[in-house]
Amino acid sequence: MEERGNISIHTENIFPIIKKFLYSDHEIFLRELVSNAVDATQKIKRLSSIGEYKGELGELKVKVAVDKEAKTITISDNGLGMTAEEIKKYINQIAFSGATEFVERYKDASADKDQIIGQFGLGFYSAFMVAERVEIITKSYQEGAEAARWDCDGSTEFTITSAERAERGTDVILHVAQDSEEFLETARIRTILDKYCKFLPVPVEFEGETINNPNPIWTKQPSDLKDEDYKEFYKELYPFSEPPLFWIHLNVDYPFNLTGILYFPKLKNDFEIQRNKIQLYSRQVFITDEVKDVVPEFLMLLHGVIDSPDIPLNVSRSFLQADASVKKINTYITKKVADKLAEIFRKDRETFEKNWDDISVFVKYGMLSDDKFYEKAKDFVLLQSTEGKYYTIEEYKALVQANQTNKSEQLVLLYTSDAEKQHAFVEAAQSRGYDVLKLDSVIDSHFIGLLEQKLEKTTLKRVDSETIDKLVEKDETKESVLNDTEKEELKKVYEEAISNQHMHVEVAPLAPDDAPVVITLPEFMRRMKDMSRSGGGGMMFMGDMPDTYNVTINANHPLNQRVLKAEEKSKLARQAFDLALLSQNMLSGAALTSFVKRSFELMTNE
Questions:
Q1: Domain end: 158, 189, 210, which one?
Q2: Is 123 annotated among the ligand-binding residues?
Q3: Are residues 190 and 61 in the same domain?
Q4: Is 272 flagged in the annotation as binding?
Q5: 77 annotated binding-site participant
Q6: What are phi and psi of 212, to 5 degrees?
Q7: Per-residue pLDDT averaged across 373-389, rounded?
Q8: Domain finish residue from 444, 471, 498
Q9: Residue 122, annotated as binding a ligand
Q10: Is 119 labelled a binding residue?
Q11: I need a surface site. Which of 84, 245, 313, 404 has the fewest CB within 10 A?
Q12: Helix (H, G, I), strand (E, B) or coil at 395
């Protein structure tokens, strides 16, 4: 038997176009061919299970072999196989109306090159990205079928001849082109197989060993698995990572098909680098680890796998962004994560609190970016006080309601972004019986704004943004031991001593045991500058503006009464001001040197 013919495409030569448009992704040829072999193997297994194939199945596997000397790569299976007629039907007919249309449609090839293959059923023809000639030797499972050989040199011409093959199945033999000889290196092939074929559902053999796990745990029922199984699988995915905190097993078949396991890792400070750790599969074939449109943005820091046959193998970014199934998957994952966190909080609050530092970024980011997640998470998001205790939002509101409601009947939640640096302010607040929260993570500046937006009659103030009396203003007036003339004189002394236009001085009657000088950066100013630093819209100009501080002089502190009576009023005032700067780590360089010298002078004069 010998037959010659032309591949049914309306162009002189489609293969140079395939190479030109897909070259940067040329390693996927192996994924495509091995996936085809796996499909053929699974189909024979299916036919056997329903009684349409009566023969022996034998050991079902796919083999990949490299012959460097012959410059060939062979992908073999013992699946369905094909007859000569089926070769003509499935291999030779490519529905293109012409190369011109192809080039026009995909002239912006940088965006969706992967989709080109899937769009026109070109999975097999990706072989020509690396091969100058391709052979198929195949024998159908059908009784009495004869083996056939298909041969094509990369032009539109092919030959089909009789072949010798004892068993059913298919060999695809790639005669590797000179510019693709990197694929004759076993290490290169092993890397590609490990990337794309690690969890294919049929054993894949390379160099005498099975390189894949055909039964990963995401394909099993959660009831059949133990904690150790999940931990071992995590180690298989991420050999050098610390054990995960906990995990979520995804398993749904309506209104879409989805399986997978998402792990909550222990986050490092450089958590941005941890992205792209979730792997997307379609029927256990690896697609990508860029899952931004499948997984909600706030869960991109999770690790694990997602597998959905509803996502095509040759997926593109534009497909992911537009596909309805993908949007449903995104919503489902959000709900599943929220439900899991709520369950852990409800059943084992102690463990939840223990892991809070690692999971708080996920939770707060989710609340910021998804209203539905916020509604679920508001019941288990935790607020930590400087005393180390954890509270839900409602628990914390109940704790501080009586003492921290101001004269406008607003609840004031006090917080510190750096408990060590702001220690004096925290201590001052605690001396009044106020509680102070620790909100010091990278996301907390945004989370604070969210709480103010969502919680009625509630405001948050950083402890160093005002003097203690102004943080939680009450209906009470403190008397000053200084008269108006003395207050005005004290103000002028400090203004001259400080001599800085960005330090606004005021004299106020604080408690005698409060600090003599208090330097604060107003909450509004600090928030605007924080927004500017994080790229907040309309606030970029704030980043170039110098910080403007309020300097409150405590009229009732004995030191300031002494300043008014001192011979070197300015010197003593500057010393008090520098002490206030020093307490906030704001004193350095020449100013610090002057402070040290002045301290010795004052001590000597004493």
A1: 210
A2: yes
A3: yes
A4: no
A5: yes
A6: -125, 165
A7: 96
A8: 471
A9: yes
A10: yes
A11: 245
A12: helix
The three-state (H, E, C) secondary structure of 243-285, written as one string: CCCEEEEEEECCCCCEEEEEEECCCCCCHHHHCCCEEEEECCE
| Domain harbouring 391, CATH code | 3.40.50.11260
pLDDT at 282: 86
Q: Tell me whether residue 275 is annotated as binding.
A: no
CB contact at 8 A, 412 and 433: no
Q: For the residues 451-455, what does the mean pLDDT come to? A: 94
pLDDT at 321: 59
304 is in an annotated binding site: no
47 and 162 within one domain = yes
Reduce the DSSP state of residue 180 to 3 states and report it.
helix
What is the Cα–Cα distance from 1 to 94, expressed in whole angstroms? 24
Q: Are both 455 and 534 inside the same structural domain?
A: no
Domain that holds residue 142: 2-210
Half-sphere exposure of 421 (CA within 13 A, CB side): 14
Place of tokens 């084992």: 348
On whether 449 is known to bind a ligand per the annotation, the reply is no
32 among annotated binding-site residues: yes
Q: For residue 379, what pLDDT is reported?
A: 96
Instruction: Find out whether 11 is annotated in a ligand binding site.
Output: no
Residue 593 lies in a domain: yes
Q: Is residue 479 part of a domain?
A: no
Alpha-carbon torsion, ordered 575, 578, 583, 585, to 10 deg: -150
Two tokens, residue 565:
């009576």
* 523 backbone dihedrals φ, ψ, rounded to 5°: -55, -45
**Tokens 């302010």 correspond to what residue?**
425
pLDDT band at 362 (very low <50, low <70, confident <90, very high): confident
- Known binding residue 36? Answer is yes
What is the predicted pLDDT for the residue at 28? 86
153/278 same-domain check: no
Q: Which two tokens stand for residue 218?
A: 């995401």
DSSP 350: H
Q: Are 33 and 140 found together in one domain?
A: yes
Is 369 within a domain?
Answer: no
Asked if 358 contacts 264 with a C-beta cutoff of 8 angstroms, the reply is yes
Per-residue pLDDT of 8-37, as tens digits, reads: 554 445 556 555 554 457 888 999 899 999
Q: Average the pLDDT over 211-225 and give the result.
A: 94
**Annotated binding residue at 317?**
yes
